[in-house]
Amino acid sequence: MNSEKMRLRLLKKMPTFGYKNLIADWVYLDFLQYFGDDEIREKTGYSLSPEYFEVILGNDPRFLTAYIGLSTSTSMYAAMPKRSVALMDKSLKSLSPWVPERSYYVWRYKGIDELLFLGNSQAARQSFETAANWANNYSDEQSKQVITISQKTADFLSHNPDSKHAQIASWALVLSNHVDEKTRKIAIEKIEDLGGKVISTPQGNQIKFPKKD
Known about the structure:
The mean pLDDT is 91. The chain is built from eleven helices and two strands. It is mainly alpha-helical and 213 residues long. It has helices at 2-13, 20-36, 38-44, 49-59, 64-77, 81-92, 104-117, 121-135, 141-159, 164-175, 181-193, and strands at residues 197-201, 204-208. The relative contact order is 0.08.
């Protein structure tokens, strides 16, 4: 692991010669191999996760697919949500509502980390509201769903900073991101612990919220 950490540190400092996107793609593939090796990760943990994403997003902050890996691996498995949120904060300076397309998802991932792993409901509310505002620039059904869910989550938090409904909605967002089986099980378990229920349907997962928040 020490040799891999040194390699990643070197990649952060070395000149890219105009191949930033290629380096980001290459290191992301390395991360997928690292994250997917469950047997080794059980022994050594996930502490290198943020190191991978410092290289990936440092070279290509518009690499939208990378952000869900950052959120899941660094906040949930490496237990470093502050690193995850800090990396997103830094990278968001290079994004706009239109570049890359559907960049509103980054605000959602940030809101999830802030609420579920940092317990910062105020920051999470602002992130979900920004996600809804950025998504409002699009007219497709996917974006409309993001607007509705993100705004509802923000509304839950504005009325109750400790809202179970908001936490369940955030875990439901994790579940909707086509995550690995281990993450899927964690999300379902967390939803049920909060009093919700996940119902599998042909159209996808339906979330049943508890009657009281």
